[in-house]
Amino acid sequence: MKNGFVDELLPELIVLNRTILKRGLDTHIKPSFEFLRSYLNDNDKIVAAIKRASWLLTHDLKGRMQPNMDFLIKEGVPPHCLEKFITLQPRAIMQRKHRIVYAVNAVKNLGLQPTSRMFVHAVRVMISMSESTWKKKIELLKSIGWSEEKILSAFVRDPLCLACSEEKIKNVMDFYMNTMKLEPHTIIAYPKFLMYAVDKRLRPRYDVLKVLESNKLIKGNRKIEWLFTITEKNFMKNYVNRYADEVPGLLEMYVGANKAKYIGTS
Known about the structure:
Family: Belongs to the mTERF family.
Strand content: under 5%
Structural class: mainly alpha
Radius of gyration: 23 Å
Shape: globular
Low-confidence stretches: 1-5, 257-266
InterPro entries: MTERF (IPR003690), MTERF_sf (IPR038538)
Keywords: Transcription, Transcription regulation, Transcription termination, Transit peptide
Pfam family, one: mTERF
Largest sheet: none
């Protein structure tokens, strides 16, 4: 193997997956590595995939992954998207072929083309759940005011929004609609909203904004939903550190036990 790369990586991988010790270096591990190289082309990407799923070196990649890759290529999925599939969700690409075929056809029926950057994300979300689970999530969102057309539109724009569990969807929608009083159409406009954690992101930011409003430091008609989408660094800079001196306890309220991590952020 070039530059002894595998030899350097093996000790770390053995800790993650002791089955590697039972596989021959020349008969299994190197061929598996070369198989991944044929699609990833870059050692760093190969390392990322293997570290995420060390079993890539011990499973039968040609027997399980090759037919799926051939099918995706035939469907027109470009090489850079295949790279994402392997590095981000290697377990999905190891599903039985009939699952891949089902997911690809379902996603194409929604209007997403294989060349779209969202296509592989949509496929891996489809693969991750049964058809009955998919229907339950659709019915759950319909029960709180979303039309099926709007739900599918949100999925096409950001497929990971429906990777969330039903319980997660219920909790986050309860917060948006009953605490924040947001309208369903506002939430639909931001599919990522379904992915945010209530206790780690939404509630702390919401509490800060309400305190700032009550102290007349920001206007109450500000588009609050946009403030949930900005990065943690920008939220800290513009809405916590900026007003920390004017509102005693604001920083402590927001970061809680981890406040030392953020002090001095600018």
